[in-house]
Amino acid sequence: MFEIQNQVLLAPYTSFNVGGPAEHFALVDNADDLVEALKCTLPTTPLWTLGYGSNCLISDKGLNGMTVVIKGGEVKVEDSVVIADAGAWWDDVVKSSIQHGLWGLELMSEIPGSVGASVFINITAYGQSVGKRVLWIDVWNRESSRVERLKQEDLQWGYKDSLFQHDDGKKYVILKAALQLSDRKTEDLTYQKALDVAEELDLDVESLVERRDIIIEARQRAGSLWHPGDTGSKTVGSFFRNPFVSAEQVDKIIAHDETGKTAEQIRNMNLVHGGDSHRVSAAHVMLAAGFKRGQTFADGKVKLNDQNLLKIEALDSATANDIYETMKHIQAVVKETLGIDLEPEARILGDFS
Ligand SMILES: Cc1cc2nc3c(=O)[nH]c(=O)nc-3n(C[C@H](O)[C@H](O)[C@H](O)COP(=O)(O)OP(=O)(O)OC[C@H]3O[C@@H](n4cnc5c(N)ncnc54)[C@H](O)[C@@H]3O)c2cc1C
Questions:
Q1: Separation between Cα atoms, residue 84 and residue 205, nearest integer Å
Q2: Mapped to the 3 state alphabet, what secondary structure does 37-70 carry?
Q3: pTM of the entire structure?
Q4: CA dihedral in degrees (142, 15, 84, 67; nearest 10)?
Q5: DSSP classification of residue 51
Q6: Which residues line ligand 1 (CB under 6 A)?
């Protein structure tokens, strides 16, 4: 059961730990209660659906209308299909699939967040994306006030993109997802830093179970682990999407890598993360535009992570507006110096005017 509350502060529901109050608010822990909460919301009322808040920046002014947070739900495996409620913790899905000897998600081990957001974002890591595995998704259609089933081919998958991020998908709230997995390997692991971990720890990249260990260690080293309640680094992971650039710009941008990797290794890393030869790492773009790891903004309240400058960190007294203004500044400098439009991967929710 759930109750609808008023003026609930949203900051504690996000990994940035910033953001104002929800006008109306419900916290649900399964897909059935999510539908009930949605039935209590008029189709004309603004609606915001959140999972674990690890990929959103919510305005200090809060969110008008109704905010429904879904955390929790069932994960079950039927033959080679995993079916999970929108609020299930993504990594529980990965763990279940590995326990059943199923390949297709293992390289996305320990990406923080919910199943609903994983398909909304089309999460991607180390050469795997969730969209490729989706068989169907059950949604609540706010226009018809009915549950509908959408198929893989209806969902407009792209790099960190899905139907749900576009105007024709905004009427849907994700309730449940079914993922088609395989009893055989689906992808090779080619990402150099993960291969280095495997070699150092003598782990087998061809073993499903050991692949998970490799990825978790690689993520640990990259500072890419987060669980609800963690009080360490406050980020949303990579703040910006890797942009498309012209063929001429690729070499110019990757020349700014100072870690000793060859151009071929960098091109391969970009391919693994972005899937296209003209998509370069947003981190390299920021380096090429003159930004530095550890650089601070907003009187020291916002910082680019010491290792990975794509991770914008909120320090203790940062507001959502401080982070938003930092984003705008980075976008403006990148546009001015390189002519590239850097788009946020983080979802910017509410009014920042
Ligand atoms: C340390 C760290 C590392 C990360 N590493 C990666 C990574 O390797 N790869 C990667 O792809 N991402 C990564 N991320 C980003 C994040 O983990 C994912 O985007 C994740 O899917 C967000 O899940 P969430 O439940 O926290 O989403 P939220 O922040 O709660 O929501 C994100 C968006 O999804 C929408 N949404 C959520 N649930 C629903 C629903 N049921 N129906 C409709 N819309 C919904 C929300 O409205 C919002 O627009 C990382 C984040 C952090 C903090």
A1: 27
A2: HHHCCCCCCCEEEECCCCCEEECCCCEEEEEEEE
A3: 0.94
A4: -20
A5: S
A6: 15, 49-56, 70, 86, 111-114, 116-118, 120-121, 123-125, 164, 173-174, 224, 226, 235-237, 347
73-78-80 Cα angle (round to 5): 115
What are the residue boundaries of the structural domains of the chain, listed by start? 5-70, 75-180, 192-221, 247-349
User: Two tokens at 344?
Assistant: 């946020």
pLDDT one digit per residue (tens) for the chain, 353 residues: 889 999 999 999 999 999 999 999 999 999 999 999 999 888 889 999 999 999 999 999 999 999 999 999 999 999 999 999 999 999 999 999 999 999 999 999 999 999 999 999 999 999 999 999 999 999 999 999 999 999 999 999 998 999 999 999 999 999 999 999 999 999 999 988 999 999 999 999 999 999 999 999 999 999 999 999 888 889 999 999 988 877 777 777 777 666 666 666 666 666 655 555 567 889 989 998 999 999 999 999 999 999 899 999 999 899 999 999 999 999 999 999 988 999 999 999 999 99
Q: How far is the CA of 114 from the centre of ligand 1 (A)?
A: 7
CATH (one of 3.30.420.10, 3.30.465.10, 3.30.413.10, 1.10.540.10) for 75-180: 3.30.465.10
- Asked if 53 and 71 count as a contact pair (C-beta separation under 8 A), the reply is no
Look at ligand 1, atom 19, and give the residue with the nearest C-alpha.
55
**For the chain, how are helix, strand and coil distributed in percent, rounded to 5?**
30, 25, 45
**Atom 52 of ligand 1: nearest residue by CA position:** 237
Same CATH topology for 5-70 and 75-180: the answer is: no
Residue type for position 269: M
Q: What is the CATH number of domain 247-349?
A: 3.90.78.10
Rounded Cα gap, residues 140 and 38, in angstroms: 8
Rounded Cα–Cα distance for residues 341 and 244 (Å) = 9
Alpha carbon distance, N-terminus to C-terminus of the chain: 36
Residues composing the chain: 353
- Domain range 5-70, its CATH number among 3.90.226.10, 3.30.43.10, 3.40.190.10, 3.40.50.800: 3.30.43.10
Which of 62, 119, 112 minimizes the C-alpha distance to 91?
112
